Amino acid sequence: MTDGVRSTCPYCGVGCGVVLDADGAGGLTVRGDPDHPANRGRLCSKGSALAETVDLRGRLLAPRIKGREASWDSALDRVATRFARTIAKHGPDSVAFYASGQMLTEDYYVANKLMKGFVGTANIDTNSRLCMASTVAGHKRAFGTDTVPGTYEDIDKADLIVLVGSNLAWCHPVLHQRALAAKAARGTKIVVVDPRRTASCDGADLHLPLRIGSDVALFNRLLVAIYEGGAIDTRYLQQVDGFDDTLRRAFCADAGPTGLDPGLVSWFCRLWIAHERVVTIFSQGVNQSSAGTDKVNAILNCHIATGRIGRPGMGPFSVTGQPNAMGGREVGGLANMLACHLDLEDPMHRSAVRAFWDAPRMPERPGLKAVDMFRAVADGRIRALWIMHTNPAATMPEADAVREAIRSCAFTVVSDVTAETDTARLADVLLPATAWAEKDGTVTNSDRTISRQRAVLPPPGQARPDWWHVAEVGRRMGWARAFDYASPVEIFREHAALSGIAGGFGRDFDISGLSDLSEADYAALRPTRWPVAAKRGGRFFADARSFHPDGRMRMVPVAWRPPQAARAPRYPFRLNTGRIRDQWHTMTRSGRSPRLSSHLAEPFVEIHPEDAARLGVAPDTLVEVESPTGRAVLRATITDRTRPGTLFAPIHWTGETAPTGRIDALVAGATDPVSGQPESKASVCAARVFAAGWYGFAVSRRPVRPESDYWAVAPTQAGWRVEMAGRTTPADWESAARALFDMPVAESQVLTDPARGLARLAFHEGGRLQAALFVGPAPLGLMRDYLATLPESDVLTGRAPADRPDPGPTLCACFNVGVNTILTAIETRGLMSVEAVGAALSAGTNCGSCRPEIAALLDAALTREAAE
Ligand SMILES: Nc1nc2c(c(=O)[nH]1)N[C@H]1C(S)=C(S)[C@@H](COP(=O)(O)OP(=O)(O)OC[C@H]3O[C@@H](n4cnc5c(=O)[nH]c(N)nc54)[C@H](O)[C@@H]3O)O[C@H]1N2
Ligand SMILES: Nc1nc2c(c(=O)[nH]1)N[C@H]1C(S)=C(S)[C@@H](COP(=O)(O)OP(=O)(O)OC[C@H]3O[C@@H](n4cnc5c(=O)[nH]c(N)nc54)[C@H](O)[C@@H]3O)O[C@H]1N2
Ligand code: SF4
Ligand SMILES: [Mo]
User: Fold this and answer.
1) Which ligand is nearest to the CA of 130?
2) Other CB atoms within 10 Å distance of the CB of residue 120
3) Same domain, yes or no, for 717 and 793?
4) Cα–ligand 2 centroid distance for 583 (angstroms)
5) For the CA of 282, the nearest ligand
6) Residue 632 maps to a domain
7) Which residues of the chain have pLDDT under 70?
8) Main-chain phi, psi angles of 866, to 5 degrees
9) pTM tops 0.85, yes or no
10) Both 275 and 163 in a single domain?
11) Both 155 and 71 in a single domain?
C-alpha cells in the first residue's frame, strides 16, 4: 500500500519499520511501516520526529586533520600510516578500536575483521559493554551462547509481564504499547521492578520499588517460592545442571536487601507462580550493575526452573537498547568474542575464522574491555585509538578522566556525523560519515529480526559510509584483497557465509541461508528473524537443549551483594541515572528537534522531598552534586518518584548542551567482574544547594554559548532557549547580554532594578526581536514557551497576551501540545479521561508515550477540584 522507501528507525532496539519519502530538497517525511512486524505502523515521539533531524546544521562534511579540512586521501593515509607505525613499534595491542551498537552490521563486521584478523589484536570493544555485556555473559553462562529466547509476539500473548530495571514506556515505547494492548485484550498483568516510580508504572498492577542493586535477592526469593509452591518443571529440569546448588544458595538469604514490604514480595511471587505465560523484560537496571551478570542469571534461573522459556507468551527477554546492539553481538564486536557467536578462546573456532578470512594473525586472548581500554589509553599502553559512532567522552563512566585520556592519546581518529561533540573535539583525524537515511545496511533488533536501513538522501559533502572508512584504511595498510568491498551487500554475504561455518560448529547464529543474496535480493530484503539456515529455524530452548558442549542448560547459583561503592558520611546519596522520553543519548540527533527538546529542556536531578527539605533545596533551584570522580550542577526536581537517599539524573547533556550536566563525570568506573559492564546506576555522591547569585533565561535567534557557571541550551522553532545561573552578578547586565548574544550594536530595551536583582533586556535588529534576557535573584517564573517564539510585542513583561496563551512545556511531542493547553482544556471543558483529552486535543493519540503524563495531570486537576 505504500510508496516510499522502507527503512528502520535508527534509535532504539525495538527496530520499528519506517517508510521514507524524500522531498527532493534534502528533506523527507517519515511514517510507520504498517507491514513491519516490530511496530505494524506505530512510531514513538522520537521516530515521528526523525524528519526534523536530517538537516545539515552542525554536520561534519569533510575530513579534518587537527581541526583543518583535508582531502580523504591525506586523512586516510594519515590513519593507515599512524596505525601501521604504532603497531610496528609497539605491537598490535598498542592500538584499539571503540565501536558502537548503532553501527550497521556491515560496518561492524569490517571493523571487527580489521582488528581481530589483520591488525591481530582483540582490542576492539564497543559501547555495548556499557549496555548489553551483562546479558551476553548471563546468557552464555545459562545457554552456552548469547541468544535472546524471546520474541515480540510473546509480549502480545503473555498473561504477566514483569519489567525489571526497564522504563519501557519511555525507552521502548512501541513495545510498551504492545504490552498495554495485551492488557486491554487479554487482561495481561504488568509488574514493574524499579527503585523509581517511572512512567512505566502507570498502567501497571504492581510496582516494587526495591533498593538499587538488590534484584538478585528478589529473584532468589522468587526461586524459593517457586520451589515451595510446587511450580518447578521436573521434566524440563532433567536437562538442567545446577538446580540443587542454585536453590540451596537461594535458600541462604531472604528478600531483606530489597527493602520491600514482605507482603509486596509475596504478592509478586504469587502472581509469577500463578501465570505460566510470564515474560520478564529486563534492561539497564539489571545490566548496568557490578552484579549485572548475577542479576541476569537470577532471572533466567526462575524461567529455567519452571520451563517457562521458548514457548509462546513466556520467557526471559532482554530488550536491547541500541538499534543494532544485537547485530554487534552477532559480528563479535566485543573484545571477548570472535565473529558469528564463535569463541575467541576456542582454537578450533579461531582457526576456522582465520582460514575463512585468510587472516595473517589472530589474537588468542580477549582484548581490553571498555573501562580498561580507556584506562590503557590514559596510561599510554594504547597509543592509537579509533572511535566510531559513539561519544565516550560523555557516556563512559569517569567521563572527565576519559576525556583527558582521549585528549592525551598520541593519535585519535573519530568517525562521526557531527562536527562538534565532546569526543569529536578531541580527534586528531575526524572522518565524516554518512548518516541514517543516507546509508545502506542492516540492523538486528531485540527479537533477532534483521531489517534493512536504506538510503533515500544523497551523501552530503564528502561524507562516506563507516564501512568504507574502515575498508579504505585496511587497504592502505596492505590488505587490499581482504577489504576489497564495493558495497554493503558484499559484506553482508561474507558475514552470512561465515555464520554458516559457525552453524557447522553447532552455534545458534546461522544466517547462511542469506549468503547468496543478489544485489536485488538485498535491496528487497524483508524483515527476517534468525536463524535462517537450511536445517534450522524457529525458536530456542523450549526443549531445554542448550549450546553448551553437553547440550544441557545451566542454572547458576547467585547470591546478593551490594553495589561496589558504599555510601559514607561524605557521600550519603546513591546516584541512579537513565533516560528521558524524548532524547537519544548525547542528543546529537534528537536534540536538533525543537519538539523533542521542549518536553524536558535542561538537565535535572530528581530528589525526594525529605532530602530536599533537609538540604534546603527549593523547587527549581540548582543542586550541586559531587562524587569522588566529578561534579555537576542540575535543576532540582523534588519528587517522591525517587526513594529517600537516592538521586536520579538523566544522561543526555554534554559539554555542547550543558557542560555541568555531564552526568558520567560523576559515575565511578566500578564494573561487573564477569561482564566488565560498568555500574552506571549506583555511584555514591553528595548533594548541596548551588549558591546562585542570579538566575537567567534567554531566547535568541542565533546560537549562543554562555560562559556562566550553569547553562543549558535547547533549540526552539525560532532559534534557541537558554537557562543560566551564576554565583556572582555581572556589574552591567547590558554589556553582559551584548557579549552573550554577540550583538554589540543592536538596538536595546532595558529594564533593571538592581536593588531587587532584576533585569530584562531585549535586542532588536531591523525592528525585529533578535534576543532577550531575563534575570532574577531566584528561579524565574516566566512563560518560557511563549517567549521561546520570540514574540514581537510586550516581550519584557515576560507574559503572553490574553489572546496568545502560553502552551507550556510540550507534553505530547507528536502533536506538539503543551501542559498548559491540556490543563486549560481539562478545566474549561471538564475533560475527565485521557481519551477525552485525546478527542479534544489529539494529545496522546499517536504514539501514546505521553498518556501516563496526561493521566497524572488529570489526577492532579481532579484532586484539586475535589478539594475545592
Ligand atoms: N528515549 C530514549 N529511549 C532509549 C534510549 C534513549 O537514549 N532515549 N536509549 C536506548 C538504549 S541504548 C538503551 S540501553 C535502553 C535503556 O532502556 P532502560 O534500561 O529502560 O532505561 P534506563 O532509563 O537507563 O534505566 C531503566 C531503569 O532502571 C532503573 N534502575 C536503576 N537501578 C536499578 C536496580 O538496581 N534494579 C532495578 N530493577 N532497576 C534499576 C532506573 O530507575 C530506570 O528507571 O533505552 C533505549 N531507548
Ligand atoms: N551514567 C550512565 N551512562 C551511560 C548509560 C546510563 O544509563 N547511565 N547508558 C550507556 C548506554 S546503555 C549506552 S548505549 C551509551 C550510549 O552512548 P554513546 O553511544 O556514546 O552516545 P550517542 O549519543 O548515541 O553517540 C553516538 C555518536 O555517533 C554519532 N553518529 C550518529 N550517526 C552516525 C553515523 O551514521 N556514523 C557515525 N560514525 N557516527 C554517527 C553521533 O553524532 C554521536 O556522536 O551510554 C552509556 N552511558
Ligand atoms: S520505539 Fe520509537 S525510537 Fe524505538 S525504534 Fe520504534 S520509533 Fe524508533
Ligand atoms: Mo544502551
Assistant:
1) 2
2) 18
3) yes
4) 12
5) 1
6) yes
7) 1-2, 533-538, 865-868
8) -65, -35
9) yes
10) yes
11) no
The type of residue at 12 is C
Classify residue 455 as left (phi > 0), alpha (psi -120 to 50) or beta.
beta
Indicate which residue's Cα is closest to atom 4 of ligand 3: 12
Kindly tell me the burial class for residue 391, based on how many C-beta atoms sit within 10 Å of its own C-beta (0-12, 13-18, 19 or more). buried
Can you tell me whether residue 681 is helix, strand or coil? coil
Strand bridging mode 720-726 / 710-715:
antiparallel
Which residue's alpha carbon is at the smallest distance from atom 1 of ligand 1? Answer: 581
Cβ–ligand 1 distance for 578 under 6 Å, the answer: yes
Q: How far apart are CA 192 and CA 283, in angstroms?
A: 12
The reported pLDDT for the residue numbered 391 is 98
The closest ligand to the CA of 632 turns out to be 2
CATH number at residue 23: 2.20.25.90
| Ligand 2 pocket mutation, candidates 46, 100, 324, 396, criterion most atoms within 8 A of CB | 100
Element housing 138 (H / E): helix 133-143
What pLDDT sits at residue 868?
Answer: 61
CA dist., res. 444 & res. 733, Å (int): 54
Atom of ligand 3 nearest to the CA of 48: 7
Same domain, 152 and 111: no
- 3-class state of residue 648 by DSSP: strand
Confidence (pLDDT) at 1: 44
The answer to whether 650 touches 635, Cβ cutoff 8 Å, is no
- Asked if 701 and 826 sit in the same domain, the reply is no
What range defines the domain where residue 288 resides? 133-318
Q: Which of 484, 388, 385 is nearest to 432 (CA)?
A: 388
Determine whether the shortest distance from the Cβ of 649 to ligand 1 is under 6 A: no
Burial of 184 (0-12, 13-18, 19+ CB in 10 A): exposed
Q: pLDDT of 731-774, one tens digit each?
A: 999 999 999 999 999 999 999 999 999 999 999 999 899 999 99
Q: How far is the CA of 382 from the centre of ligand 4 (A)?
A: 25
Q: Are residues 676 and 702 in the same domain?
A: no
Number of domains observed in the structure of the chain: 6
Q: Does residue 443's CB lie within 6 angstroms of at least one atom of ligand 3? A: no
Is residue 848 situated within a structural domain? yes
- Which amino acid residue places its CA nearest to atom 33 of ligand 1? 285
Q: Which residue has the cell 498502567?
A: 203
Q: What confidence score (pLDDT) does residue 860 get?
A: 83
User: With 0-12 CB in 10 A as exposed, 13-18 as middle and 19+ as buried, what is 729?
Assistant: middle
Q: CB under 6 Å to ligand 2: residues?
A: 100-102, 127, 130-131, 284, 288, 321-322, 388-392, 395, 415-418, 421, 433, 435, 466, 577-578, 585-586, 588, 651, 663-664, 667, 680
Same domain, 355 and 481: yes
Same-domain status, 274 and 373: no
Q: Whose CA is nearest to atom 10 of ligand 2?
A: 130
Q: What's the pLDDT at 54?
A: 94
CB of 98 closer than 8 Å to CB of 426: no
Ligand 1 contact via 320 beta carbon (within 6 Å): no
Q: Which ligand ends up closest to the CA of 296?
A: 1
Query: Is residue 59 in some structural domain?
Result: no
Distance CA 517, CA 685 (A): 54
Residue to probe by mutation, ligand 3, list 8, 11, 20, most atoms within 8 Å of CB: 11
Does any domain span residue 20? Answer: yes
pLDDT at position 820: 87
